[in-house]
Amino acid sequence: MPVDPATAPSLDAPVSKPAPPQKPFDRAETIAKREADLKLLDDTRTRLEKELASAQAAGDATAVHDLQIRITRTSELRKQRSGELDKLRAGGELPK
After folding, report:
1. Is 93 left (phi over 0), alpha (psi -120 to 50) or beta?
2. What pTM does this model have?
3. From the CB of residue 79, how many other CB atoms can be counted at a distance below 10 Å?
4. What does the DSSP assignment read for the chain?
5. What is the pLDDT of residues 8-18, one digit of tens each?
6. What pLDDT, on the 0 to 100 scale, is given for residue 26?
7. Which of 88, 47, 90 is nearest to 70 (CA)?
8. Rounded CA separation 29/27 (Å)
C-alpha cells in the first residue's frame, strides 16, 4: 500500500530513544512462565476439544479436520514445552 507523502513522517525526524535494558529472567521466573504456558496450552486444548465435539455434532467435516490438526499440534507443542520445563527444573541451561 503506497504511503501518502503528505502524511508520511519526515526522513530526518528525531530518532526515538532506545528501550531501557531488560533484566534477564532468573530460574524461578522462567519456570513460572513455562508453567503458565503449559496451563495456557491445556486450556487451549480443552477449548479445541469442545469446538471439535460441536463440529462433529453439526457434521462439519472441514471444521472437524482443521480442529483435529490443531489439537494434534497443540499436544505436540505441549509435550515439547513440558520436556523443556523438566530440563529447567533439573538444572538445565536457561533459554537465551
Report:
1. beta
2. 0.70
3. 11
4. -PPPTTTSPPTTPPPPPPPPPPPPP-HHHHHHHHHHHHHHHHHHHHHHHHHHHHHHHHT-HHHHHHHHHHHHHHHHHHHHHHHHHHHHHTTPPPP-
5. 766 666 777 88
6. 86
7. 47
8. 6
For residues 78 and 83, what is the distance between their CA atoms, to the nearest angstrom? 9
pLDDT band at 2 (very low <50, low <70, confident <90, very high): confident
- 18 near 76, Cβ under 8 Å? no
Residue written as cell 523443556? 84
Confidence of residue 22 (pLDDT cuts 50, 70, 90): confident
- Residues contacting residue 31 through CB under 8 Å, at least 6 positions apart: 85, 88, 89
